[in-house]
Amino acid sequence: MTDIIVANTMHYYSQIARLADVIWREHYIPIIGKAQVDYMLDKYQSETAIEKQIAEGYEYFMMTYKNIPVGYISIKKEFESLFLSKIYILSSYRGKGVGKTTMSFIEKKARNYQLKNIRLTVNIHNTNSIKAYETLGFVKIGSLVTDIGHGFVMDDYEMEKTI
Prior knowledge:
This protein is an alpha+beta fold. About 40% of the residues lie in helices and about 35% in strands. Helix 1 (about 10-30) runs antiparallel to helix 2 (about 35-45) and helix 1 (about 10-30) packs across helix 3 (about 45-55). The longest helix has 23 residues, at about 10-30. The radius of gyration is 15 Å and the shape is globular.
């Protein structure tokens, strides 16, 4: 039921940007506020931003459920880790196995790249996601505060899963 598609054209970038707009506004406005969400959507999730990230070595994939676009991921191969930059699923499709299928896909990618672990960052106030990652075997390995401009910071935990 869940398919994972390589997102490598402007058509897919546009679909991902629309998904991001819905998912981020619902999920992150209560955590970081509307102004930062607006800024981050433009800076990191616009079609242009996605195209730039792909040129820098990130891979984007879109998840579909019964042929409906429901989420996306972005990964990047690093020296020993697969960096899971983004994993987002529409709230109405959570609990349908999309996340589980996607995490299996990500682990398979890491193994195919012969990497030792999967690494991600998550906002320190994003408690539900932190719990979900811990359930999947991720552990906190540190904290990161990143200045992203315009007076905004990302206040994250770095988490890692050995594979």
